[in-house]
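Entry type: protein chain
Record version: 2
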Amino acid sequence: MVFNRSDTEQMASAGSQQRGPLLYKPLFESKAVSTREKEKTMSTRKITIFDTTLRDGEQSPGCSMKLHDKLLVAGNLEALKVDVIEAGFAIASPGDFESVQAIARQVKTSSVASLARALKGDIDQAWAAVRDAVNPRIHTFLATSPVHMQFKLRMSPEQVLEQATSMVRYARSLCPNIQFSLEDYTRTEEEFSWRVIEAVIAAGATTVNLPDTVGYAIPEEFGARIARVMEHVPNVDKATIAVHCHNDLGLAVANTLAALRAGAGQAECTINGIGERAGNAALEEIVMALRTRKDFFAGMQCDVDTTRIISTSRCVCSVTGSRVQNNKAIVGQNAFAHESGIHQHGMLANRETYEIMTPESVGLSQSQMVLGKHSGKHALKDRLEQLGIMLSEAHLQELFGRFKDLADAKKVVTDADIEALARGLEMRNDAQQKLVFERFLTTTGNTTADVSTVRLCVDGNSIEDVAMGNGPIEASFNAINKMLNLHVTVENFSVSAVTANVDAQGECDLRIRHNNKVYLGRGVAQDIIEAAIRAYVHALNGLLEDEQRMTVNASVMAAGGLV
């Protein structure tokens, strides 16, 4: 997280700035816990799964989500039975506040949290967003490492301790479920971290998170450090110790598991491991490690419904456009695939020769329903649900029409085809879209100019325009820009075949940049030019929706209202 100058000045106002070596006197005497007492505690521990896909995961470049996307992911996370859903950073923008509030009102079983800096304004906004949740949580944080305190916060250790304590106490006056994070904990001096942990628990924190913010830790080192927290903080039994590990060295999951063995009770993670920079610890890997190696993680258990892992993973891929690599553990396309002759021979003799978990345990089925032109809507709906795609009746009907068109052209419609169709489907009613693609016609060849005519429905009215370009796709984009009088930059344009067959659908992913903002577009069609046009229109709808919201917010603020 980045603090601006006004924020840091608020924090520094508690006292004069100090410099020099960080030397601390412990607030308490060390209280060693016997090995037998530790074993007894660990043998009955429930591990809380805190999912931050919608907050930290969304901060991954290219993974931003619209409100309807976030509600869809939240629904899948609730069905997965995660304990806590971190819905966002409420004060970041009016859109973030709206999405956190909508998720808090929708989710009925999981706790819903909002992130907040250790500032009253942030905490007030977070509470306003989550207060309607069945079990709301405020998650506030402050950096505690020397480099962050000196160069980012410009605060002394004592000022940080005071700010953390007072803000936790204030948050607790609003909400009974408070989490405090020591940002950059793994580079924080240990004795100072113990003082902060003890103080914030005394002030009312029910969970204290010790994040490896920059992915710096090594598992053996991190586990030992967590064990010392459990030993040296006298009131540690009054709160849950959590860990939040980043994957900069590829060790996020390993560090998380080491911390759980050492006594931590909450694992913070994301679906598919998405997140800042190299990402976060992957929920599916943590949960399946606990389940598969019960002998090693004796007595630890979590309530996640592992059979929902694949569908949730695919849902996140679908709404973010961020796919997992084929060899990704648990959820990758090859995770349960065997091509080697030796492996295949072993699998035919006994699946346990090369599989340490069953495909069914994570939501895959060995038998696959074949869908074709004779399949009905019920079969399509069932397969969509297995793939983690939930649609309204109106959207299902629209998708079914596209499915039938595709089935007429292909003998068999694969799961990849169905997912691609769903990705290409606008996840809101046509009546709510400013732009709806209707048709196109191109003239192209190696001896003639490339010309495209495109017709869109704009605010309910059909508009058509024609333009030239370097290729039929650029000509189509130019025609759209011409009719809308828009000037945008296309970035990261890619077209790929959904399957390996010659009758495959084309899928286009692109990003457009306008006024330093980036918008994602996805389109699917049997014609790659149509797929590109649909992706471009998808991205433009996001742009126009953003501009409309900004206009409304500006009008409300000008009128003296609250956004």
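Comment: The domain at 342-424 is CATH 1.10.238 (Recoverin; domain 1).
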